[in-house]
Amino acid sequence: MALDGVDPVIIFHIYNKKLISLFDFIPFGAEIAESIGFPIPIYLSEQVTGIFVTNETRTIDLDTEIIHDQRKDPLNPTKTKKVDIKQTGLNSLLTINLVASQHSAFMPILLAVLDLIMPKVATAEYAISYLRGSTVIFQAQLHHFSSVAEMNTDLLNIDITLSTAKKFGDVPLNEQADEITKTIPPVPKNTTTIPLG
């Protein structure tokens, strides 16, 4: 269903070094192509593609650890117990429920694109964006996909779950800094001497 006259759209971004190199002749073309990849948009409109959104569900997963400190407070000997709560973000998910006709010409395209990104999961050479009204997600990863064919009808129920979890989302800041530092090569020492006079 269109919101404010604009149909929802899901965009698959495929990153390919050969395709990106084709934009080298354009100023900043390669940089732009590297950031957005090769976009494949699919409009989620019953009238246009025969695929439309029925529901959206947002889920945020957190890990909560309760730490009990049994040490006594030297300033208050009667206080012997302290409770700290530590939370870590695990995932941020958006589940999109779709309904499509099995005769939709865009269903094979959607399934083909999903098959296309499977070999790219390990190398993260893809991303998915989704825009529908106030729901806007950029550079997400596929977390789950399923399709169920209804009996005695030509309808398919499709579930696509997108994850926007960050690479270092569950790593403490000091460990993030250590990981980034590992990628910076050391500065070579200059042992050349310059004679004076």
**How many helices does DSSP assign?**
4
Average pLDDT: 75
Q: What share of residues are in beta strands?
A: 35-45%
- Given as residue ranges, the uncertain stretches (5+ residues, pLDDT < 50) are 167-194
What is the number of beta strands? 7
Looking at the structure, what is the overall shape?
A: elongated
Question: Which series of helices and strands comes N to C?
Answer: EHHEEEHEEEH
Rounded to the nearest angstrom, the radius of gyration is 25 Å
Task: Give the structural class.
Answer: alpha+beta
Distance between the termini: 82 Å
Query: Which percent range fits the helix content?
Result: 10-25%
Major sheet: 7 strands, antiparallel
**Strand order, sheet with most strands:** 2-1-5-6-7-4-3
Features:
197 residues; alpha+beta; seven-stranded antiparallel beta sheet; 4 helices; 17% helix
